[in-house]
Specification:
CATH superfamily: Glycosidases
Radius of gyration: 20 Å
Oligomer: single chain
Largest sheet: 9 strands, parallel
Distance between the termini: 15 Å
Strand content: 5-15%
Structural class: alpha/beta
CATH topology: TIM Barrel
Number of domains: 1
Mean pLDDT: 98
CATH class: Alpha Beta
Shape: globular
Number of strands: 14
Strand order of the largest sheet: 5-4-3-2-1-12-11-8-6
Low-confidence stretches: none
Number of helices: 14
């Protein structure tokens, strides 16, 4: 594919998250997060791994910024670790944590790279979880204070902000089925966490704008939902899943309303918060990885759908089907569903994991990732030609990292990390992406 298909001013970037790469878990006054607690549970993380060191970005951030500069991206989507800044999630501010991000942001700006700041990428301070976590309304207000703090500190150097990354994953995987921290298994009774994250988002938008930031958006995980068959029941199941993983997280932000079929699971006071939640945004971030397949559930199922594997496609090493046309389908669906309510889109995450290891000479060949990125960028260009306003694309991820409950085995990075030595090796895909960005310019 050719990046000549993308307009001037299109934003080219990569993304990471603090917990997955930083390490330094017991340094610089950082407090405990729910992921530290979760990783200590036997069997919670593959191979008993944890993120105490991870890719050690805390000590190697200058090396990583040099990688970004070598890659040629104009933007880097990073996240702040809430426990590093407010160890208990409220009150006392850890100056050493703020100083670390000052150094990182200054290094990025000196390299000519625009930071995109994500306030929250799942690492809730454990002290807040002990008080109810995202099931408690108060967490949204503590988040607003945190957003104000960061906006006032960093808005002079960060012009683009994202309050919360993928609230769907927190609600469904963290509180619904227990696969992610904090490991609660509440099924649909977890849905108040969606509302309180939305409220936190809206309050953060208000706080960030008050601090004078230029642009505020989102980073929501979305994918098309397909019925497993042609029966009415299969189509109803697909509609229910779509409401849960897509509309529950887009409708309130864009339309100021919730899917009617999910209202009974929300807190009683939800309507009073909708104006705050639907604060106007400068862009809508879409994280795309794969479509979902839904079938009619068994009669005794507690859910209105049954997930089925999407078959007939090549798979990543993280068991995700590779479906570039799903990105095109999703963007057109959102374009038609939300119309004028949909701000310009940025693809805030898109990437894949493969079993990437260096050859004898240290070279990391990853032709599958190059093919993945090329085909997804082609699908993105097709969606833009079909009328979808897309302004940027961020590859997940710059580095191999701690992949949540899967540990270190999945490798998503454009650069390989040898965890024993912390050596970074750019993969073939790194150079491919570098060349596409240079071609665009």
């Amino acid at each position: 594919m050719s990046t000549a298909q993308f307009p001037a001013g299109f934003r080219w970037g990569v993304a990471t998250s603090a917990f997955q790469i930083e390490g330094g878990a017991h340094e610089g006054g950082r407090g405990q997060s729910i992921w530290d607690t979760f990783a200590a549970i036997p069997g919670a993380i593959a191979h008993g791994e944890h993120a105490d060191v991870a890719a050690d970005h805390y000590h190697h951030y200058r090396t990583d910024v040099a990688l970004l500069q070598r890659l040629g991206v104009d933007s880097y989507r990073m996240s702040f670790a809430w426990p590093r800044i407010q160890p208990t999630g409220a009150g006392t501010v850890n100056s050493a944590g703020l100083d670390f991000y000052d150094r990182l942001i200054d290094e990025l700006c000196s390299a000519g790279i625009s930071p995109v700041g994500t306030l929250y990428h799942w690492d809730l301070p454990q002290s807040l979880e002990d008080k109810g976590g995202w099931l408690a309304r108060d967490t949204a207000h503590r988040f607003a204070e945190y957003a104000q703090l960061l906006g006032e500190r960093f808005s002079d150097r960060i012009d683009t902000w994202i309050p919360i990354n993928e609230p769907m994953v927190t609600s469904v995987y963290g509180y619904g089925i227990g696969e992610y921290a904090p490991g609660r298994m509440l099924l649909l009774d977890a849905l108040p966490t969606a509302h309180y994250q939305h409220l936190a988002h809206g309050l953060a938008v208000r706080a960030l704008r008050a601090a004078g930031v230029d642009a505020v958006g989102t980073a929501n995980n979305h994918g098309p939902v397909w019925p497993a068959g042609e029966t009415t029941a299969d189509h109803a199941a697909a509609g229910s899943l779509d409401a849960l993983i897509n509309r529950l997280f887009a409708d309130p932000v864009l339309l100021g309303s919730y899917p009617t079929e999910l209202l009974r699971y929300l807190p009683a006071e939800y309507e009073a918060d909708l104006d705050t939640i639907a604060a106007p945004l400068d862009f809508y971030g879409v994280n795309y990885y794969e479509p979902q397949l839904a079938a009619a559930p068994a009669e005794d199922s507690p859910l209105p759908f049954e997930l089925r594997p999407v078959e007939g496609y090549a798979m990543t090493s993280n068991d995700s089907p590779i479906v570039p046309e799903g990105l095109h389908e999703l963007l057109l669906e959102m374009h038609h569903r939300y119309g004028a309510a949909l701000p310009p889109i940025q693809i805030t995450e898109n990437g894949c994991s493969f079993a990437d290891e260096p050859d004898a000479d240290g070279t990391v060949h990853d032709p599958e990732r190059i093919d993945f990125l090329s085909r997804h960028l082609t699908a993105l260009a097709d969606a833009m030609r079909d009328g979808v306003d897309v302004r940027g694309y961020f590859v997940w991820s710059l580095l191999d990292n701690f992949e949540w409950s899967h540990g270190y085995e999945p490798r998503f990075g454009l650069a390989h990390v040898e965890y024993e030595t912390q050596r970074r090796r750019p993969k073939d895909s790194f150079f491919w992406y570098r060349d596409r960005i240079a071609e665009h310019r």
